Fold:
Amino acid sequence: MNVSELKTRLLNLVDVFEEKEDLLTDLDRAIGDGDHGVNMVRGFKALPDNIDDRSMQSLLKSTGMTLMSNIGGASGPLYGFSFVKMSQVVNDEIDKDNLKVMLNSFSEAIAQRGKVELNEKTMYDVIERANTAAQQDEALTFEVLQSYADLTKDIEATKGRASYFKEDSKGHVDPGAQSSVYILNALIGDEF
Ligand code: ADP
Ligand code: MG
Structure:
């Protein structure tokens, strides 16, 4: 994957988030404050004016900075920091091996920044499972990514705003887990 291919994929995400805005809003209304859909749309809408495509590194870094300052909430700094971290390991051309390194860095960034572990009902549940699958060369289709998000449904949240709902957070997919399905799907494409 070259710079212009990745740029297209990142810019196309605004269409995905506009289509899924209501779904993410509903999920966040159930176990949060209902702003996740609008947050993600705002972040990716700001991308065309701020993305720097002079190199693969600048592409990911500028995406991270833009997401950090435009998504807001808990998820903005987490996604933003992750893209900045991935910019530090990306090659000029992304192949399967480089994508593995990027996914590992994505997962480490969330763990570090969110102080989160598996099964706390967050985006990390999807990102870390995708990372593990990639390292083992397993298929990572949209359906597989979605199945990771669906696993968050039956567990109790112990991080973020959803943790205030305690037992009542059970029965709903985590909004950040759902949004990370779309982000990972764009990054991975048909590489795995
Ligand atoms: P806020 O909770 O501030 O309203 P958002 O609604 O945009 O922010 O994002 C909520 C999502 O952020 C959650 O669904 C969860 O996936 C993710 N999240 C929150 N706190 C953490 C954390 N400490 N580590 C990882 N992800 C987190
Ligand atoms: Mg929210």
In short: Residues 3-188 form a domain with the Serine Threonine Protein Phosphatase 5, Tetratricopeptide repeat fold (CATH 1.25.40.340). The chain has one domain: 3-188.
